[in-house]
Structure formats: structure tokens, C-alpha cells
Amino acid sequence: MVIKVFLATSSGSTAIKKKQQDVVAFLEALKVEYAQLDIACNEQNRMWMRQNVPEEKKPSNGIPLPPQIFNEESYCGDYETFFDAKEDNAVYSFLGLAAPPGSKEAMQADEGQHIVENGTHADESNEEGAGDDSIEVPEGDRNGDAHGGEAEEGEGVDADELAEPVENEATEGDEEGHAEEDGEQEEDLQSEEEEELRQLEDEEEADVEEEGEEFLEETREEVAE
Description:
- The structure is a single chain.
- This protein is an alpha+beta fold.
- 65% of the residues lie in helices and 8% in strands.
- A 4-stranded mixed beta sheet has the order 2-1-3-4, with helices on both faces.
- A hairpin with a 2-residue loop joins strand 3 and strand 4.
């Protein structure tokens, strides 16, 4: 297979000349067999190139500019796609050629294939290991069965209902305590009232005795006079 490079030897565009030189120089460096087809001096080459470049690869004006690269009759690409392949070390794939052994592109391809194969073997090993290591759990040890009976026994029992007796007991105890305190306070009040009454009675008795003694004293004085 021969790589065909369509270029314009008499182009007035410096950019086009530079692109053509880059493509040719790189193909020579790779020692790829190629043929230069001039479209400036050969109308047949120019027409063939324009007709065989895919429509989706043509610019908006419909006229593809050189350099355009073909592998025999198959379209490879223009300078931009060639440059991208060069940056990715994929020029041989871009040209539709097999990469020679020892080239960067061949080494990358081998590494990619090796990774894919290792990944496939690893997946197969994991699947086999998963099948061998599977252990059937007895029904009695399964979470659903082990706790199912306990869950059924506890059905219908509300936590609030369980807490109600405790709360009622605590309330009854508090009421009894308050009742005892109230009784003690009433007893204390009664005792204080009784004590005050006793004091008043004693004071009244003392006043009565004093008044009596004063009355007797006045009477004696009057009698003496």
C-alpha cells in the first residue's frame, strides 16, 4: 500500500507550505513509503482529491486545502488530524499501516492488549473465586429468622404502655408524700394555735390576778382612810 500526499508545490501560502513540509518530513523520518501528488500543476490530481475527500471533512466552502493524505483510495485525513495522531503516537494507525516492532506505537498497543488480557483474567478469577468461596448461611442464623420470633412476641406492645405503670407508681408515691407533708403541716399549725391559745389564757389569767390585786389594794386604802 502506498500513502498518497496531495500537495501544492507552487502554493503562495506560507502556512500551507509549512504544513506540507511537516507531513513529508515526518513520513521520511518514519521511513514510510509515500507518493507526492501535485494539485497545482495537475488538474486531474486536484479533481480526484476534491472528489474523494468526505463531505463531512471538507471546509464550509467545499474546497479542501492541501495537504490531504490517502492510503491508496482510502482517505486518512488532513494536516490537523495528522498532527493529532503524531501527538498521540498513533501515526501508523492514522495511515492504516501496521506499526513496526519496537516503535512507540507498537509498544503502546502491546501494553494496552496486555492490560486488557490481565483484566479479563482477573475478572474470570474473581468470578471463579466468588463461586468457590460462597458459604450458605443456616436459616436459623439469618438475621430475618433469628430475630423474627422476638419481633412477633413484641408486636402490639407500645413503649408508652410499658412506661405507664412506672409513671403511675411514681405519681402515687408523690401523692402519698405530699399527703404526709400536708398532714405534718396541719399538725404543726394546730400545735402553734394551741400554744398561742395557752399563752393568751395565761396572759388573761395574769391580767385578772393583777387587776384583782390592784382592786384589793385600793379597797384596803379606802378602808384605812
